[in-house]
Design a protein that fits this description.
Protein name: Exocyst complex component 1
Number of helices: 28
InterPro entries: Sec3-PIP2_bind (IPR028258), Sec3_C (IPR048628), Sec3_CC (IPR019160)
Subcellular location: Cell membrane; Cytoplasm, Perinuclear region; Midbody, Midbody ring
GO molecular function: phosphatidylinositol-4,5-bisphosphate binding
Shape: elongated
Subunit structure: The exocyst complex is composed of EXOC1, EXOC2, EXOC3, EXOC4, EXOC5, EXOC6, EXOC7 and EXOC8. Interacts with EEF1A1. Interacts with SLC6A9; interaction increases the transporter capacity of SLC6A9 probably by promoting its insertion into the cell membrane.
Oligomer: single chain
Distance between the termini: 164 Å
Number of strands: 8
Largest sheet: 8 strands, mixed
Strand order of the largest sheet: 4-3-2-1-7-6-5-8
Amino acid sequence: MTAIKHALQRDIFTPNDERLLSIVNVCKAGKKKKNCFLCATVTTERPVQVKVVKVKKSDKGDFYKRQIAWALRDLAVVDAKDAIKENPEFDLHFEKIYKWVASSTAEKNAFISCIWKLNQRYLRKKIDFVNVSSQLLEELPKVTEESVPSGENQSVTGGDEEAVDEYQELNAREEQDIEIMMEGCEYAISNAEAFAEKLSRELQVLDGANIQSIMASEKQVNILMKLLDEALKEVDQIELKLSSYEEMLQSVKEQMDQISESNHLIHLSNTNNVKLLSEIEFLVNHMDLAKGHIKALQEGDLASSRGIEACTNAADALLQCMNVALRPGHDMLLAVKQQQQRFSDLRELFARRLASHLNNVFVQQGHDQSSTLAQHSVELTLPNHHPFHRDLLRYAKLMEWLKSTDYGKYEGLTKNYMDYLSRLYEREIKDFFEVAKIKMTGTTKESKKFGLHGSSGKLTGSTSSLNKLSVQSSGNRRSQSSSLLDMGNMSASDLDVADRTKFDKIFEQVLSELEPLCLAEQDFISKFFKLQQHQSIPGTMAEAEDLDGGTLSRQHNCGTPLPVSSEKDMIRQMMIKIFRCIEPELNNLIALGDKIDSFNSLYMLVKMSHHVWTAQNVDPASFLSTTLGNVLVTVKRNFDKCISNQIRQMEEVKISKKSKVGILPFVAEFEEFAGLAESIFKNAERRGDLDKAYTKLIRGVFVNVEKVANESQKTPRDVVMMENFHHIFATLSRLKISCLEAEKKDAKQKYTDHLQSYVIYSLGQPLEKLNVVWHSMQDEFIRQYKHFEGLIARCYPGSGVTMEFTIQDILDYCSSIAQSH
C-alpha cells in the first residue's frame, strides 16, 4: 500500500499541488469487484482545500487516473455501519449516497480517522459521523504547521507509523556523499554486510562524538532550548492568529461563493429575459394585425375601388399573420391560441362578407346585362361582357385570397358564377341564333315555315316543309331540293347566288361573334378565379382532323363534366358549363343551312375549318377549339353526304326514250359545282376534302355519261359521248383543277375518239342529219350566253358590266361559217 501511495502522490497529486494524507482500497457495494482508491488530500497553497478523490487504474492497467473529486465541505454524513464489530462497509453522503466496501477494516478505520481529523482542523461545518468507534474520534492535540512536515510524503497525523516508514528520495548532495563513501570501501558492493557493519561502527563513533559534543555544549543547548521554547510560543501565537484569519477567510469564502452563485443566477436570468423579449417581439411583429386592417375586414366597403383596395391589403396582412411560421413552443401559449382564434374568426367573417357581396354582384351585373338584350335582338351581334368583366376583375386578388384561405366558399362562388352566367349566356346565345336563322330564311314569316319557335333555335318543321322553301330572285323562284341535279336546273332558271353569299356572310358573322365571346370569357375566368391556361391535351387535334366518317368520341359531355385533375381542366369544365348551348345551337344552324341549300355545306366547311385552325393555334385544348372541332365533324359529314347524294342522283337519272340527249344535266351541274367550289375553296385550309370530292364526282360523271349514252335511243351514242366529254374537257381546262389533270386528259381522249367515230359513221348519212347537229350547237351556245348574262345581272346589278358580244353576233358568226363552207 505504501508503494501505491507513493506512486499516486508522484503521478497524480504532486502535479496538482496536493498532498495525499490517507488512502483506502474500496469497491462499490453489491457490484462486481472493480477496485479503486479513495484518497484524502489537501492543497499545498492557502487557503487549504480538502478533498476526497476517487482514483482507479486505467483500462490497460499500466497507470492510475483521477476519476472524480468531492469537496470535503460537501460531505454531510460518514456512516461506518457498525461501531462494535469489524465491518469493511461504509457510506459517504455527498449530494447522493455512495456505498463502499474497503479491502480491510484497518484501512477503513484509518481513512475515517483521517477524515475526522481533517474535519476538525479545516472545516467550520462539522460532519456527522455515524456508527463510528469513539476511539477513532478521540480529540488529538491541535496540529500545527511545524508538526506537519513540508515534504510531499508527510501526513497531518502526528503519530502515524506510515509517516516514519515513508520512503524519501535522496537529493543530489546525499547521492554524491554516498558514492564517495562507497568508493572508499572496495567491498561496499561485494560484501554489503561488512560495509553495513563498518557504517554502523562509524555511526556509533559519530554518535558518541556527537553526545560528547552536546554534553560539552550543555549551556549553549539550554540557551538553544530556551530560544526554541520562546519560538514555539511565538509560533503558537502566530498559529492562533492564522487560525482566526483562516476562520475569517472561510466565512469570506463562503460569502464569495454565495455571491458567485448569485451572479450566475443573475446572468442566467438576464439571458432568459433577453430570449423572452426576443420571442415576445417576434410574436408582436408577426402576429399583430393593425386596427385599420381589422376594421376593413369587419366593415370595409366592397363596392368602391378604395374600399376594395383597403380590404385587399387587410386580407393579405391577415393571411401573413395566419401563415407565420411559429417557433417551437409558441403554439402552447394561451395568447397565441387566442390570437389565432381571432384571426380565424376574422377570416371567416370576411370570407362570408366577400362571398355574399360577389354573389350580389353576379346577380346585379346579370340584370344590367339582360337590359341590353333588346337592342341586340334585331342585330346579329352578341352583347359585350367587357364592362362586367372589368368590374369583377377588381376583386381578382380577393378571389385569390379566398381560394387559399377558404376553398369551400371559393368553390361555392365558382358554382354560383357558372349557374348564373350559364343562364344569361343561354338567353343571349339562343336569341342570337334565332336572329341568324331569321336572316338566313329571309323573313319572320318564312322562319315560321321551318317551325322556329321561341329562342330554342331547334328545327321543328318537317323535311317536306323545308323542301318547299321558296328562294325568290327577281320575281322568278322555284322549289329547291338538296340535289346537285336540281341545283343544275335552278342554274338553268337563274339560280339565286346572292342567297348563298348571304348565307356565307351570316355564318361567318355567327362564328366571328362567338369566337371573341368565348375567348374573352375564358381569359376572364383564368384571371378572376386564378386558374392556369394553355394545357395541351393529347388527341384533340387528331380527333378534330378525323372527319372522314365514323363516330368521333367527344372531348366532353355537357351533362357530365370530367374529373378535375388540374386548374387547367377546371377552366375547360367551367367553359363547358357556361357555354353548354353553343354546340347544339351551331348544329341546329348547320342543319338549317343544309336544308336551305346543300351547297351551303361548302361555305360552312371552309369557314368552320378556318376558325378551328385559328382556335387551335391559340390553344389546342381550349373550349372554343374543342367545340368548333366537334361542330366541324358535323359540317364535314354534311359535305360528304352532299357529295354522296349527287353521285346517287346521277345514278338515278332516267332518259326518256322519245327525247333527244344533249349535254346531260349532271355534266352542266358539275361545271357549276366546280366553279362555285373553286371560288369558295380558294386558299382554304381544307383543300384536300374538295379534291377528294372532285375525284368521287368526276368518276360518277364519267360512269353515268357512258351509262346514259348506252341507253339513249334517239341520239347516237358517239354524239352523246362526244358532246358531254367535250363539255367536261372544256370545263376542266378552264378551271385548271390540278387534282383532275388525269381526268381532263381522259375526257379529251374520249371526246376525240367519239368525234372521230361519229364523223366516220356520219359520212354515209344524208346531209340533213348534219344540219340537225349544227343547230343544236348553235342553240347550246345561245343558252350558255343567256345563263352568263343572268349571272352578271344578279351579281353586279347596275354596274354596266356586259358581255363583249351579243346574241346577234353569235347568229351572224354561225351563219358566216355555214356560208363559207
